[in-house]
Hints:
With about 575 residues, the chain is an alpha+beta fold. It is built from 18 helices and 13 strands.
Amino acid sequence: MAKPILECVPNISEGRNLKKIQEIADQVKHVEGVKLLDIDPGYDTNRTVITFAGEPQAVIEAAFLLIQKAAQLIDMRTHKGEHPRFGATDVCPLIPISGISMQQTAELAKELARRVGESLDIPVYLYENAAQEEKRKNLANCRAGEYEGLEKKLQDKAWKPDFGPDDFSKVSKWGATAISARDFLVAYNINLNTTSTRRANAIAFDVREAGRVQREGGTLTGKIVRDAQGNPQKIPGSLKYVKAIGWYIKEYEIAQISMNLTNIEHTPVHIAFHETCKKALERGIRVTGSELVGLIPLKALIQAADFYLEKQQRSLGISEKEKINIAVKSLGLDDLKPFNPKEKIIEYKLEEILEEKLVDLSIKEFAEQTASESPAPGGGSVSAYAACLGASLAAMVANLSAHKRGWDDRWKSFSDVAQKAQKLKNELLLSVDEDTQAFNEVLEAFKLPKNSEKEITLRKQAIERATKNAILIPYKVMETSFEVFELLKEMAQKGLQASVSDAGVGALNIRSAIYGAYLNVCINLDGLTDQSFDQDIRSKCADILKKTDQLEQEILTLVKEKIGA
């Protein structure tokens, strides 16, 4: 199971006093098990987005300290800014990243809210997945009236805080805070070649889910059209799960469309950007680029790259690094300032708080660690890595073939092969570390105490479980490697003639990987007591080895014929 990682993205109502901002953000550094990922201040909005992540309970502690410090340093009675707000820490959402469910995150949000309300005397409203009633799910409802309307809101029984005081005289300095459990939200601004807030708003209304109020005659000044109950009729925008407004940013001397993408599974970043480009052109305005506020999941940029690669009829089976570069250029993420993937992609930032992996080592470092006195990494990890190289060669031949002049009608089939090869390569990369971890788990099981009958039984069970895992991982390498073999045969048959030798080298790597993984299966089977498991695995391995020998000969014969060897 993945290590539980929780992200927290508090927005504080201070974007100008850098000393205050840093002092508030530094509270996170006092908590072990948490990493401060990003501090993104906005001068005109007078608001800063702070992002940190780590072990769930450590994140809750860091969030509490940050909210406490913000209440001490920020005075809402004098605060002015472009962004809606009602408190020193305006919002504090918790986002599950890995190893933790949304339900568990919602419980942690309630735990934090209770502590903030009771210990800091801050009114707290729970929203989104932590909301305790339907009308409070929407943040806009909780924050309606903003700070200036908070006194009246606290007097309304329907809007009594979920936790904390409802006496404005006690909280006038720091206001209220909204705490939630939510999906990953992307704060995203699209840059326009205009300074007109009005025109930026018009485009925002075209695309945002809420759309715009309908007026008679379709004009901006016509009488508002109302339903039978007297409520204004709306013309919905073209994008679901998108909130958007237009504003002017003096710092850059341009108007922007500021978006919150609340469900990037349904409306990804690239779709929001592409649709906005179309709507802007219809109004005689050009999109010049975009910017991210805070962090973004890696998957979102990979999807953007695939979207634009497909439009260009280019292979989608290229490296992660290349895809990120294409996404940055396609979305214009470097339009206003340089875009650093290591600083803006959440997975890359989280790597700093996760254990170091073998696959993160350089080739030289991996070789040196393998050559050391330690028994791990050993043959299993090396076999998995050999298979990675075979898969990489399959992807390379497919990508080169997709770009061959005169084969334009075949790009998609080669792209499909390259994508499959990249997927298998990534699975095999995971096995490099999994094999070493499995070996270490076996060693740990043998270290368990055996001072009583119960301890002896538990120790035997732990050894058996760990041994089975140490068998299944190299067996999985055998299965995955064989899938690569089939791709290499296809590339040897149909791929670029000039790269057919690369397909042959890939096949030799895969054969070595399969037999190497098999040896690791066998040495671990030797210590197993479950005979039915033993026989089943041996039978499956024998079948893979038989097919491997046959397929290797077919590929090498084909390659030798084509290169005249």
